[in-house]
What does this fold into?
Amino acid sequence: MARIRYCANCGARLPLRAPARRRYCDDVCRSQAYRSRVASDRIWTLGMMLA
It folds into this structure.
C-alpha cells in the first residue's frame, strides 16, 4: 500500500507514483521554498549583525 505524501511547501498531495525523494509538487513550489529559506537566512544574519 502506497503512503500518501504531501508537498513540503504548499501541502498539496503528491502523485502516488512519485519517487521517494520528491518533496515538492512542482518546480514553482520548489523555487518558493528556496526563496523562503534564503530570505529567512538573510533576516537571521542581519539580526546577528545588528546584535
